[in-house]
Known about the structure:
Cytochrome Bc1 Complex, Chain D, domain 2; 2 domains; two-stranded antiparallel sheet; 2 strands; globular; binds heme C
Amino acid sequence: MKFYIQTLAIVLSLLTFPAPGAANPELLAEKSCDRCHWFASNKPGDGTNGPHLYFAGDKFQKAWLIKFLQKPEIIRKAGYIYDPGFLEKRPALDQPHPTVSEKEAKIIADYLALLKIPGLEHGAVDDVPLTRGKRARAKIKFERNYGCISCHEAINLAGKVRGGVSGPSLVNAGNRLTADWVYHWLKSPERFKPKSRMPVYKIEEADLVLIVKYLMTLKRENLKP
Ligand code: HEC
Ligand code: HEC
């Protein structure tokens, strides 16, 4: 009997032991990612050179992370500005964003997927795609009613990039961000960032869901040459 219990314990420990290299946070230190990013919310002082990643598991689609880490794209053309009171613009990135191998990108993405804000609710936005008519209405809200386009790049009817650059580009939002996170960002940005340079909107629920679904339709592959 004792033998069986011991064997069972060994089998169980093998099953639960993480595969070598999986979700390894040490790789982040090894690659100096923590020189520019926060991976925990209670770590004051550093990480002010890049966007916070302590809610990366809520914010990003994993497939996008794996691609970005190997071949970074520029998201904030005006540069990353940490302090909203900081008027002097920083350069977009005074050096190209570091890159990692495909294997490392997968390990890092596995780890980032675990970084979440406790208690963030899911499922406010269903994944039924917008009809053409609703999408057209959502686009008008994004561009005209709320003027989001003045600070954010999106895709126009001709399939071209259009919009301001003081906020992050949303051209690839449908591949990059999760609907849940965008919903919460628009509803209560202070849960992610105490001070942000984006105006806080009071958007009524139906419009909010419509706008989030519209952003999810924006994908780089929809751009026309
Ligand atoms: C020299 C500073 C620096 C280092 C080192 C660095 N990053 Fe970044 N990272 C940035 C900046 C700045 C951006 C924003 C780029 C943009 O918006 O175009 C960024 C963007 C990102 C994003 C997208 C975040 C978002 O909100 O758009 C991820 C994910 C990321 N970095 C992960 C990493 C990982 C993983 C490492 C280590 C392999 C790393 N970074 C190393 C500065 C850095
Ligand atoms: C006055 C300029 C401005 C307007 C108008 C504006 N935003 Fe933003 N937005 C920003 C800035 C700046 C950020 C980056 C905030 C930060 O990280 O502090 C941002 C961030 C975002 C993000 C998160 C992007 C990311 O990758 O982190 C989304 C999504 C977004 N805005 C959507 C919208 C929508 C939808 C509207 C209209 C309802 C809107 N924004 C209106 C400036 C603006």
